[in-house]
Amino acid sequence: MIRETNDWLTFKHQFLQIIQLSDGTEGQNRLVYSPNWIAAQSELIGFGQQIGLTSMVDTYGNVYLDLPGKDDQVIAAGSHMDTVVNGGKYDGLYGVLGGLQAIRTLKKQLGTPQHTLRLISFSEEEGSRFNATFTGSKFYALHESAGSLEDGTGWTFDDARQQAVTRLQSLKNVLIKHPSLPKSFTELHIEQGPRLINNHAQIGLVAGIVGQRRWLITIQGESNHAGTTPMNNRHDALQTTVTMISKLAEFAQQIGDGLTFTVGQLNVIPNAANVIPGKTQFTIDARHADNQVLDQFEQAINKTSDQLEDGQITVTTEQYVKDEPATFDATLLSQNEQIVQRLGLTSQVMVSGAGHDSYVMNQVSPTTMIFVPSEGGISHAPNEYTCSADLKAGIEVLMASLQAQAY
Amino acid sequence: MIRETNDWLTFKHQFLQIIQLSDGTEGQNRLVYSPNWIAAQSELIGFGQQIGLTSMVDTYGNVYLDLPGKDDQVIAAGSHMDTVVNGGKYDGLYGVLGGLQAIRTLKKQLGTPQHTLRLISFSEEEGSRFNATFTGSKFYALHESAGSLEDGTGWTFDDARQQAVTRLQSLKNVLIKHPSLPKSFTELHIEQGPRLINNHAQIGLVAGIVGQRRWLITIQGESNHAGTTPMNNRHDALQTTVTMISKLAEFAQQIGDGLTFTVGQLNVIPNAANVIPGKTQFTIDARHADNQVLDQFEQAINKTSDQLEDGQITVTTEQYVKDEPATFDATLLSQNEQIVQRLGLTSQVMVSGAGHDSYVMNQVSPTTMIFVPSEGGISHAPNEYTCSADLKAGIEVLMASLQAQAY
């Protein structure tokens, strides 16, 4: 149905209108509550009103576009409108406009649904302007407020939010409302990794989101002269760091499939060519769908750090992130598997390695996600790209799922 | 002889006068051509003139204090007057004032020597103000000029030099002169490592200075999402770095005694907890008395970097320091060994792991060094400390050596 030329052209046209708001910068820039973001949410409200959807905005700037059904149960789809700094065109926006497209086509072809169909465009997911993520979905689903935050330019979260949301709420025919929770939530999104593209699968059926833990490791040794300190007299914090990372990499390899282990940040002190490092600080990021595997890895970190302490070297581990794994709704997943089969698309069931609004929505409503491939697995970068055929396929799956649920 | 109370008190008094110039700062601060440095070289000229030495200053601010002999051959001793930022009390200054003390005592007890005795206080050795080391001894010995340099505050080397040297050369009875090279040079210095203190040896007889090579290694991989990029799809520059450092540490351990291997500086790009590092840059510092061992280590670096390249990861090695090892004069060394035995001092023959003015002097004159222990092997830090007994012993050995050579 989406193959119909007009519907696809509308999607493409709307997509272009939003991404042109970032003209003049290398990538997409719709940081939450920024002028570009206000313009994009406003355009979206216009797109919804054009096809007769009810438009609502809550006090965090989440936009809701409802196609009222015969009853007041709600089947929702959507994603987020914000981007990272110099982000890609598809992350977030694809799920918003793809969801709108699915509802538009269903309305045109099948009329009023049994349950209300709702598109949600969450205000913020990336955490790129303020030091907080998922503030949109957390406000909608959990009534959780972001707290007192400041961006780098002196704007507080609340000032930026009020200034932006006032603008949206003053648009014609916009209701100021925090609508009730949906019966289900489906998020269409590009994969932010290379598994689909490498496996030549058109659709990723997302069974959940990995649990994620992060630690800050501090190794304290003794700084000394690189030339005059004999090797057996050193307490070299960097050499101990290398040993620790090696051991953990080996352990991660033994665990194998599904565990990611990343040391992304490492600082050496004093960081001079002719001085033995006296101190290092580095981060460990570990993710897996199974909490027990993460427990195992955590034990390995603690054991390794104990082993490396020798009276002269101290190793301190501090866990600063512990996000539980999310398991998405099994019924929706199996329904989507059947849809994909029926449509003759290639697919794979997978666990997302990154967080999404669905992580939050899953805490309050049965939730599922549909991934489409991203060339080279690239995301959060200007060269993020998904071909039209894959974009269309993803919208078709979403539409069939919404149809099965709402009609 | 130095045990004589008056001579030791004079040394202590002069030492205190110079280190008090840095009062109010945590450590010693006599960066070349700074007000403290000018005051210190001026005081030294005064100390020399008080006991009738001829004082000379060249255009780099090196100070020469001569006790003229019956002929014009010169037996020289000395070290440098400058310090690092917040340095210790002994590095450099001990060799200058210890040398002066030796000459003072010899003059008092034995009168005019056969050969001229010369104390040299080099202007600069540490490279702490301008990005160049040994500029004093290189100017004296090799007529090498420092080139156009700037410190962090906008002073050029030449402006700072001229302003400071003019002050010294305008002092009463100071000759403006670049004197001829000596027949021998002896430098008294604290060990900048823990070998003497750990081995309970009072004197280090320095057979040479290690060769030193430094490389800048750049590993280029691919930056990517820490959660969504499967482990077998990563080109993690930091993990490759860890592998490379591990392999080299293993190789260094096999070579064993005498080789030092230090990765002192390591920068990770982009250095964020949730991003796989796309690039690293790090330094390798390797030192050994034998060039062949350094060649072997260099081969290991090149071999390892070749092995780690896999089409997605590139490893670039750039050598930016290659200092040849220095072998000091064998005759002076064995003479000093005999002196130490005669004086009943414990000693060990050793190779210096750090550079000294003697490295430069050795290129033009037979040269030797005498080390005394430094508590904890500490240097270049405010808590650098050598006990009085060890300071005295070092001066005694120097004095006996100068006596044997000049009288």
Task: Give an account of the 3D structure.
The structure is a homodimer of 407-residue chains. Helices cover 37% and strands 23% of the residues of chain A. Chain A is built from eleven helices and 17 strands. The first copy, chain A, is elongated and about 80 Å long. Chain A has helices spanning 5-19, 35-50, 93-110, 135-142, 157-169, 195-199, 237-255, 291-308, 330-343, 357-361, 388-406, and strands at residues 54-57, 63-67, 74-80, 116-122, 174-176, 184-190, 203-209, 211-220, 224-225, 260-262, 266-269, 275-276, 279-288, 314-323, 326-327, 347-352, 367-372. Chain A is an alpha/beta fold. Chain A has two domains: 5-209 and 326-406, Zn peptidases (Aminopeptidase, 3-Layer(aba) Sandwich); 211-323, Alpha-Beta Plaits, CATH 3.30.70. In chain A, the strands form three sheets. In chain A, strands 1, 2, 3, 4, 5, 6, 7, 15, 16 and 17 form a ten-stranded mixed sheet that branches. At the A-B interface, strand 9, helix 7, strand 10, strand 11 and strand 12 of A face strand 9, helix 7, strand 10, strand 11 and strand 12 of B.
